[in-house]
Specification:
Distance between the termini of chain A: 17 Å
Radius of gyration of chain A: 15 Å
Shape of chain A: globular
Mean pLDDT of chain A: 88
Order of helices and strands of chain A: HHHHHHH
Mean pLDDT of chain B: 86
Shape of chain B: globular
Radius of gyration of chain B: 16 Å
Number of helices of chain A: 7
Low-confidence stretches of chain B: none
Order of helices and strands of chain B: HHHHHHH
Strand content of chain A: under 5%
Oligomer: heterodimer
């Protein structure tokens, strides 16, 4: 989301607000965002390059070896698993003949929100995380154009 | 077959780590070598990767294990490229390099049981890697 030409600044501000003065949290948010964006683009391709896959596996290791994840992996594990699960649902339904599945699939593909909100809950507590939850979803929705996914008939 | 009890000295966190690591490698292998390059398989591999790195053993010993994993991934990438090479020596090296999981097994063994046991285990693991590959695919290098 951070690489989005129009939303990048808003994403940057959001990550800084969530992380506060915790540089490790900020580094994790930035790295995970870039990683998840790359995974999303890679799995949506019809032809996959083996070497690109191995490079992404190496990045998988790098992201999850960051100090913030090392400290909080037990909290972040299930939200991240859920994000991958939602991403798989989104991809499975992206070209479905039924309109509602395509629409729901597109919302499922904004799965990174779960992980950002998990970090927000850790750093800000429930009340403050709840206060920015709508904004996180709004920004994720605005950033969806960077994704290499088929667009559905959901009005902008 | 690797004796996880022996390699880890019975450490339950290490045994769990090796268990999910094995599942992860099989999933990655199926994606790369198998016919199934689907988004579903690839996402399963990325999700399994997270499960491996979220495990207590990895998070406790990441500073020791990370380089074994990254170096292993790099060597495995070379093996994938060289196994299709026209040059005999590259195919020959690829046959050995593809067993990069031994780097990680060896690291786990060193953490849990020390250097001497790791040396003994790695030779057994190399032999098992050779036998498994020959049984599955036949001898690649004439």
């Amino acid at each position: 989301m951070r690489s989005h030409p129009e939303c990048g600044t808003a994403v940057e501000a959001l990550f800084k607000r969530i992380a506060g003065d915790d540089r490790d949290a900020y580094a994790f948010l930035v790295s995970f965002d870039e990683y998840f964006e790359s995974v999303t683009a890679f799995v949506a391709l019809d032809n996959h390059n083996q070497l690109d896959f191995v490079a992404l596996l190496a990045r998988t290791n790098t992201v999850y070896s960051l100090p913030f994840f090392i400290r909080n992996g037990h909290f972040l594990h299930l939200p991240i698993q859920q994000a991958f699960n939602s991403m798989a649902d989104g991809l499975a339904w992206r070209a479905h003949p039924e309109s509602w599945r395509r629409q729901w699939g597109e919302i499922c593909s904004l799965a990174i929100v779960d992980v950002i909100m998990a970090v927000a809950n850790l750093k800000l507590g429930f009340a403050d995380a709840r206060a920015i939850s709508g904004k996180v979803k709004e920004i994720a929705w605005a950033c969806r154009d960077t994704r290499n996914l088929a667009k559905t008939d959901i009005p902008s | 077959m690797i004796d996880a009890q022996k390699v880890t000295g019975g450490n339950p966190e290490a045994i769990y780590f090796l268990h999910v690591w094995g599942k992860y490698l099989r999933c990655v292998d199926d994606a790369v070598d198998g016919p199934d390059w689907s988004a579903e398989t690839l996402l399963r591999a990325f999700a399994l990767g997270e499960t491996v790195y979220a495990s207590l053993f990895y998070r406790k010993h990441a500073s020791h294990l990370q380089m074994a994993i990254l170096v292993g991934a790099s060597l495995w990438s070379i093996a994938n490229e060289w196994e299709k090479s026209d040059e005999n020596w590259k195919r020959f090296h690829a046959e050995v390099l593809r067993n990069t999981d031994i780097l990680l097994l060896n690291s786990v063994c060193q953490i849990c049981t020390g250097f001497a046991m790791a040396g003994e285990a790695s030779r057994a693991m190399l032999a098992a890697g050779y036998t498994t590959h020959i049984v599955k695919y036949g001898k690649v290098i004439p």
